[in-house]
């Protein structure tokens, strides 16, 4: 994985998409416009299960493959292994980082971290990147922690200048610049793209903001 892959990391599941919109169509528009990484995150009260869940994952994977964009599975390590996904993203309550690393071998491993200790454990187990958030309030994750602002992001960047870091939570085209200026390699977003009326414009705006400070 390259650090640049984190630049605009789109996360989506069926429950994130407004009614009358097709999730796979939104993903295709986002890929066409230039997202750099995708995470399949199918959770929430009306989430797909069983065969429909796996078929949807495979559909998303196929599209990502066509656009040469890494396909990451949220939480479900077994699905990631079965599909030969590019990687897995886990949080602190999902799976011990060391066990995840053993199970997935060389696949990309992303880990959510909220403090120095979690950060160090992720690094010790060769996490390929860390996710830090929620930076701002979010309505896309029902069990999100209180917003943490950019202070831990700033601390993580100064402690580990070379570590791939993606910021997440309530990030939109208006506040993304602050996040890039703090040192994130990229932003991970759900609603900013899923609820956008012009996905191409939104993607282009995020990507231009990410370059301003480089
Ligand atoms: C890139 C990225 N960062 C953080 C998360 C959150 O992971 P987690 O805390 O495990 O919460 P869920 O997404 O599983 O609800 C993420 N998914 N991606
Ligand atoms: C999936 C997720 N994880 C978070 C964390 O803080 O770890 S916040 C979040 C939701 C991000 O969605 P939106 O871009 O719509 O705010
Ligand atoms: Mg998780």
From TrEMBL:
Instruction: Write one Gene Ontology MF term.
Output: thiamine-phosphate diphosphorylase activity
Question: Which UniProt keywords are listed?
Answer: Magnesium, Metal-binding, Thiamine biosynthesis, Transferase
SUPFAM superfamilies in the cross-refs: Thiamin phosphate synthase (SSF51391)
Binding residues for 4-amino-2-methyl-5-(diphosphooxymethyl)pyrimidine: 39-43, 74, 112, 141
**EC number from the UniProt entry:** 2.5.1.3
| Residues in Thiamine phosphate synthase/TenI domain copies | 8-193
What pathway does this protein act in? Cofactor biosynthesis; thiamine diphosphate biosynthesis; thiamine phosphate from 4-amino-2-methyl-5-diphosphomethylpyrimidine and 4-methyl-5-(2-phosphoethyl)-thiazole: step 1/1
Pfam families linked: TMP-TENI (PF02581)
Q: Which reaction does it catalyse?
A: 2-[(2R,5Z)-2-carboxy-4-methylthiazol-5(2H)-ylidene]ethyl phosphate + 4-amino-2-methyl-5-(diphosphooxymethyl)pyrimidine + 2 H(+) = thiamine phosphate + CO2 + diphosphate; 4-methyl-5-(2-phosphooxyethyl)-thiazole + 4-amino-2-methyl-5-(diphosphooxymethyl)pyrimidine + H(+) = thiamine phosphate + diphosphate; 2-(2-carboxy-4-methylthiazol-5-yl)ethyl phosphate + 4-amino-2-methyl-5-(diphosphooxymethyl)pyrimidine + 2 H(+) = thiamine phosphate + CO2 + diphosphate
Q: Supply the CDD domains for this chain.
A: TMP_TenI
Where does the chain bind Mg(2+)? 75, 94
Q: What is the required cofactor set for this protein? A: Mg(2+)
Function field: Condenses 4-methyl-5-(beta-hydroxyethyl)thiazole monophosphate (THZ-P) and 2-methyl-4-amino-5-hydroxymethyl pyrimidine pyrophosphate (HMP-PP) to form thiamine monophosphate (TMP).
The family annotation for this protein states: Belongs to the thiamine-phosphate synthase family.
Q: NCBIfam families from the entry?
A: thiE (TIGR00693)
Annotated protein name in UniProt: Thiamine-phosphate synthase
